[in-house]
Amino acid sequence: MGTETTTWVDLIRHGEPEGGRRYRGHRDDPLSTTGWAQMRAAIGAEERWDAVLCSPLLRCRAFAEEVARQQGLPLHVEPQLKEIHFGDWEGFTPTELAQRDGERLAAFWADGERHPPPNGESLTEFHARVASAWQHWTDRLSGQRVLLVGHSGMIRMILASVLDLAPSRAMARLYIPYAGRSRVRLDDTEHGRLGCLLSHGLTP
Questions:
Q1: Exposed e or buried b for every residue in 30-51, given b needs 16+ CB within 10 A?
Q2: Which of 41, 63, 88, 159 has fewest C-beta within 10 Å?
Q3: Rounded Cα distance, 166 and 175, in Å
Q4: Cα gap 46→37, rounded to integer Å
Q5: What positions carry a catalytic annotation?
Q6: Which GO terms describe its molecular function (predicted)?
Q7: Structure confidence by residue, pLDDT tens digits, 125-176
Q8: CA–CA distance, 145 with 82 (Å, rounded to integer)
């Protein structure tokens, strides 16, 4: 009989960036003062991990670096965990974009696999790259407790993989607040990997 290995991953979305709510995508805005407070409030002083994994974008990486430094942990920065590329929509607030391109925006949220942002990334492409990175790092960090600092869309794509959801459904129907946390348990058994969402959307 084979042995089982359990991996725990705590997913946390970055806090509020400077400039407030926007379709940022690959735009590299830092956390605001409020965003830093949200992130620090979301992590308990007694919590410990074995490794920290993050997107390279500053709104994720800066806090990941702080946690890794404070706990003396290895930090892994993965480019494939960037947010979806919103193309021509990057930098606009939701209100601005609804006024400028409301019909295409509605089509994206209804089915982002068929209606990607103009000059941006389709949900199919986005899900494929995030899922590939997720598989790579959960294999490499198997048996550990991992803190993953990322983006709302990125976390949705990971949960789509864990819960076997269509990317468009996960993107439109899973709410990920600033500094919101989810926990995933992965059990590698002789029958394959079993994934389970233990908690979702917790905020400070």
A1: ebbeebbebbeebbeeeeebeb
A2: 41
A3: 15
A4: 17
A5: 14, 83
A6: phosphatase activity
A7: 999 999 999 999 999 999 999 999 999 999 999 999 999 999 999 999 999 9
A8: 21
Residue 21, annotated as binding a ligand: no
Residue range 47-69, pLDDT digits in tens: 999 999 999 999 999 999 999 99
Q: CA separation (Å) from 161 to 15, 62, 63, 121, 164?
A: 24, 26, 25, 18, 5
Count of CA atoms in the C-beta half-sphere (13 A) of 202: 15
Taking CB atoms within 8 Å and a gap of at least 24, the contacts of 47-52 are 48/145, 49/10, 49/73, 49/144, 49/145, 49/146, 49/147, 50/141, 50/144, 50/145, 50/146, 51/75, 51/76, 51/141, 51/144, 51/145, 51/146, 51/147, 52/76, 52/146, 52/147, 52/148, 52/149
Predicted model pTM: 0.95
Of 150, 97, 95, residue with least CA distance to 120: 97
- CA-atom Rg of the chain in angstroms: 17
- Residues making up the chain, counted from first to last: 204
